[in-house]
Amino acid sequence: MRTFLYSTFPILHDPLRPAWPSHGEVWTCHRVAWLRPWVPMLVAIAALSAGCSGSGRVNFVSLNMTDIDPPPAKAWQFDAAECYWWLDEQGDLNIALRSVRDAALLGKLGRVELCISFVLDAPPAGSGRNYPIRQREVRAVALNAMQSHRFTSFAGIAGVSTLPDKRYRGSFRVWMHAHSELSMFNVMPNRPSPLLCFGTFEAVHDPARGRALRERSESSGFARPAKPRAFGGATSQPSSVTPTGAASQPGVSDASPALPAATLP
User: Fold this and answer.
1) CA angle, corner 138, sides to 134 and 141, nearest 5?
2) Does 18 map to a domain?
3) Which domain holds residue 200?
4) How far apart are alpha carbons 189 and 9 in whole angstroms?
5) Mean pLDDT taken over the chain
6) Domain edge (last residue) among 53, 71, 97
């Protein structure tokens, strides 16, 4: 009778449970109690591991104004487990993110790797800086076992703030051109439309890994054009305390391993 009530009315499960715990429940409680002293250490290890490679979140929204479904009216979200920054030979701030999404039922066919790279102007001289986004600043590639799909920016803005321990935190909102159909996500129809890409990131200093991600986003003929002559546009938020490192050493870059890496407060 009790089994019938459990299966028919799941909400009655708790009131019908016996007041005393079963043998399995007692054993589970003992295991949880044994793990409790280690919880703070496990949380600290997880946070430290995440901090070593940076993080980010990227969203895509279709700007197709001729069809509503497909693509569906929704944002496609990708969590990045890697985010790195460095300075190139021109002293410009580079940021690269990487996200990997797996579909267990599809195996390798369901694995999608997304790489995004930003090449901005000089790093912030104070607490932060806003950067206009044009044609050369952002490149992205979505890699799948079947196809590769490319994206290039044409307008937008990115904001970057300085953090302790040689880290940068930022956000971005970018309009991008899609150069192929992204059917696996069902974001775009057969005739690709522009996309709105927006998100946040926290980058750690790692020139080697960052350059590798930038090279992947620029491969197959999508290299950035030469940097145009600067006429202003980026804005800074001055800080009362001048940070050391990248801002105070404009001639230092991460282009050569022999040069010292830039530091932040």
Assistant:
1) 140
2) no
3) 55-224+234-265
4) 45
5) 76
6) 53
